[in-house]
Amino acid sequence: xxxxxxxxxxxxxxxxxxxxxxxxxxxxxxxxxxxxxxxxxxxxxxxxxxxxxxxxxxxxxxxxxxxxxxxxxxxxxxxxxxxxxxxxxxxxxxxxxxxxxxxxxxxxxxxxxxxxxxxxxxxxxxxxxxxxxxxxxxxxxxxxxxxxxxxxxxxxxxxxxxxxxxxxxxxxxxxxxxxxxxxxxxxxxxxxxxxxxxxxxxxxxxxxxxxxxxxxxxxxxxxxxxxxxxxxxxxxxxxxxxxxxxxxxxxxxxx
Length: 255
Ligand SMILES: C[S@@+](CC[C@H](N)C(=O)[O-])C[C@H]1O[C@@H](n2cnc3c(N)ncnc32)[C@H](O)[C@@H]1O
Known about the structure:
Layout: E1 12-16, H1 27-34, E2 38-41, H2 47-50, E3 58-61, H3 73-85, E4 90-94, H4 104-113, E5 118-121, H5 126-133, E6 147-151, E7 153-154, E8 157-158, H6 163-166, E9 172-176, H7 182-191, E10 199-204, E11 212-217, H8 221-226, E12 232-236, H9 246-254
Parallel strand pairs: 1-4, 1-5, 2-3, 2-4, 6-9
Antiparallel strand pairs: 7-8, 9-12, 10-11, 10-12
This protein binds S-adenosylmethionine.
């Protein structure tokens, strides 16, 4: 059985950086960054977080753009293993939570294959911060008893989901990497009975100075998302709080 190691034992610490701002970084993550010898980071790590890394630390940018990786996963794995072989205190820094759509498993497997130890410090995922920024919770008694975290695309292309379940009234889903597949998602959900009037909120550049909130509906989702150039989380089933009367929400909670 694989052992998850204590800080002193681990050759590599996987760290979730949160979606952008320093205030969304955990204290454990900050400590790991300050004690690091090497930090290998992704494109989605916020500038505020990178600025907290001491100047003497070696920074390795393995950023990837959208669908077409500029650095392949194999190259990232090889870099991680090589740095960990050459000494301790290697941090692998990933945007959001490293355990959510973060290719964590591939990198853990590469370390295991090389006989190297690791530990994981999770971070705030972009959906949590996006929901907070629109004044909503991701679950609510009487509305949704579960939360879906889904991706717009997987290794095969646009990702299939449990559309029938997701289309039920009151369901909430946080859709990651959903910009290119927005029309596909809209079509699948409406085909399975979702109303075109279902609330959808797009939060672009969560936790960054350029953050934008776009309240829309499922019917208008593809057009709304077309104007987003930055990373975006699509909150299906949620409207920005100001767009709904709190009296209506109270009635739903009490119902
Ligand atoms: C490869 S996934 C990484 C998710 C990340 N591990 C997390 O927990 O947020 C990349 C997708 O996450 C979402 N994302 C990550 N950071 C974001 C941010 N600051 N603002 C909006 N969306 C973000 C977007 O949907 C983006 O396409």
